[in-house]
Amino acid sequence: MTADRILTYSFTVLSVVTAVAGWSSRTRRAGLWLTAIAAAAAGAAAHFDAFWPMAFLGVLALWGLMLATTLVDSGWRARAGLTLAVTILGFLVSWPSLKVMTRGKVPCPQYIEERVKPRLVAGLDLRGGLRLVYSVDVDEAIKGRRDRKSVV
Predict the structure, then answer these.
(1) What contacts 65, CB < 8 A, 6 or more positions away?
(2) What whole-number distance in Å separates Cα of residue 61 and Cα of residue 50?
(3) 14: which residues sit within 8 A by CB, 6+ positions away?
(4) Among candidates 37, 32, 12, 13, which has minimal Cα distance to 22?
(5) Burial of 59 per CB tally in 10 Å (0-12, 13-18, 19+)
(6) What is the largest distance, in Å, between two alpha-carbon atoms of the chain?
(7) How far is the CA of 29 from the CAs of 10, 36, 56, in angstroms?
(8) What is the full per-residue pLDDT of the chain (152 aa) written as tens digits?
(9) pLDDT for the residue 126
C-alpha cells in the first residue's frame, strides 16, 4: 500500500468519524465539522497526490480537533491550535534539510523528500567558514556628524 493511499483512507475515516460525532454532539459541533470538512478535503488532496494542500488541510483538521476539545476555554484552544499548526508546517518544510544538515541523524521519509523541494543550504556562516570584523573610524564618524550638524 502506498503512502498516498494510506493518507487517503486515514483522512476519509477521520472525516466520517468526526462528521458523525459532530452530528451527535451539539456543544462541539463547529470544531468537529471543521475537522470533518478539512479531513475530507485532505483525503481528496492525498488521492490526487497534491502534497501541500493535503498537508495544510490535514493541519487544519488537527486544529479543528483541538477546537472540539473541552479542556480549556476556546480562545486558548484556538491560539494553541494555530501555534501547533504553524510548528508542524514549519517542520515539514525543513525536514529534508535537517536530514542533510545532520548527515542522516534526523531521518526523513522518502515520501516527504520527493514532495518537499525547497532545501536550506548551510552557508559559510553555518559551517564556520566566515569571520566578520567590524571596525569604526572614530575620527571620521565625529567629522561626519559635525559636518551634518553644520549643514542643518
Answers:
(1) 18, 31, 35
(2) 16
(3) 35, 36, 39, 61
(4) 32
(5) buried
(6) 78
(7) 21, 10, 21
(8) 788 889 899 999 999 999 998 888 888 888 888 899 999 999 999 999 888 899 999 999 988 888 888 777 878 888 888 898 899 998 988 888 888 788 888 888 888 888 887 666 666 656 666 667 888 888 888 888 888 776 55
(9) 61
Q: How far apart are CA 149 and CA 43, in angstroms?
A: 66
DSSP letter at 72 equals S
Name, in order, each residue with C-beta under 8 angstroms of 113's C-beta and a sequence gap of 6 or more.
96, 99
> What's the start-to-end Cα distance of the chain, in Å?
76
- How far, in Å, CA of 41 to CA of 56, rounded? 10
CA-based nearest residue to 66, from 46, 50, 86, 47 = 86
Separation of alpha carbons 122 and 39, rounded Å = 36
Alpha-carbon distance of 27 to 21, in angstroms, equals 11
